[in-house]
Amino acid sequence: MEKHLRKQGLKGNSYRFLFGDARETAVMYNESYSKPISINEDLGPRVIPFIYKTLRTYGASTFI
Question: Which superkingdom does the taxonomy of this entry point to (predicted)?
Fold first, then answer.
């Protein structure tokens, strides 16, 4: 499936069997939730840090 998505011009993290990006995602959530949030702070990186990072890295044409 990843091969077909890449042929269509989409970008994203490479497939990793069984757990995929679970460890990286968990680390990002733990880091973001361990800090207090400011009223003026952008909520994207706090609420969905993995998706936010993926979109910043690969752009809007991405798969997760």
Answer: Eukaryota
